[in-house]
Specification:
The complex is a heterodimer. Chain A is an all-beta fold. Chain A is built from no helices and eleven strands. In chain A, the strands form two sheets. In chain A, strands 2, 4, 5, 6, 9, 10 and 11 form a seven-stranded mixed β-sheet that branches. Chain A has a four-stranded antiparallel β-sheet with strand order 1-3-8-7, with no helix packed on it. Classes of the chains: A mainly beta, B mainly beta.
């Protein structure tokens, strides 16, 4: 079973700052990683699929990178709407989600 | 606009059964695989089950295998989750999610608002 870990658990930043979120897989998963954003009381929203492809309608300030075991979601300049919980997800075989990173306002 | 509307969540007793439904609109339903994903209160996301676009292939997480059954009706644009032998640990918000591709990619590009299942005596 492939396990995803995310770091940090919480990221405290100010609007306009750059956010770098990490997701690590316990074994190589190629590029089979997606990133989701979830706000309280809402369903998750797909941001990135295939490690680096932005989903439809996702602003260019969101970018994904990585392959193998190490993946990164970068938000280039935080907007107020970006403060939320972020999950990475393995799409290969049985889908697995990481525990999440909360981006909150410093 | 893609819309997924779940229903059927309720309070159930341990060992009981519930049937969740998801009504889909705004896309060609029979071209996409569908999944159910759940989220226990205050916890993370857990994929539960998937069904291919034709309904011919179904997949389950180990935690629900043998107890839950997914199905779809392409004539009615609905996907359902039959939940039997419910346990306290099945308590969660259940989301219906649309796959991004015709095959099963497990990239979920649209989600419903969720329906709450609570299992308690």
């Amino acid at each position: 079973e492939i396990v995803l870990t995310q770091s940090p658990a919480t990221l405290s930043l100010s609007p306009g700052e750059r956010a770098t979120l990490s997701c690590r897989a316990s074994q190589s998963v190629g590029s089979s990683i997606a990133w989701y954003q979830q706000k309280p009381g809402q369903a998750p929203r797909l941001l990135i699929y295939g490690a680096s492809n932005r989903a439809t309608g996702i602003p260019a300030r969101f970018s994904g990178s990585g392959s193998g075991t190490d993946f990164t979601l970068t938000i280039s300049s935080l907007e107020p709407a970006d403060f939320a919980l972020y999950y990475c997800q393995l799409s290969a075989n049985w889908p697995t989600f990481g525990p999440g990173t909360t981006v909150d306002i410093k | 606009e893609v819309q997924l509307v779940e229903s059927g969540g309720a309070l159930a007793q341990p060992g009981g059964s519930l049937r969740l439904s998801c009504a889909a609109s705004g896309f060609t339903f029979n071209k996409y695989a569908m999944s159910w994903v759940r989220q226990a209160p205050g916890k993370g996301l857990e994929w539960v089950s998937a069904i291919s676009n034709s309904g011919g292939f179904t997949y389950y997480a180990d935690s629900v295998k043998g107890r839950f059954s997914i199905s779809r009706d392409n004539s009615k644009n609905t996907v359902s989750l039959q939940m039997d032998s419910l346990r306290a640990e099945d308590t969660a918000v259940y989301f219906c999610a649309k796959d991004s591709y015709g095959g099963i990619s497990y990239y979920f590009d649209s989600w419903g608002q969720g329906t709450l299942v609570a299992v308690s005596s």
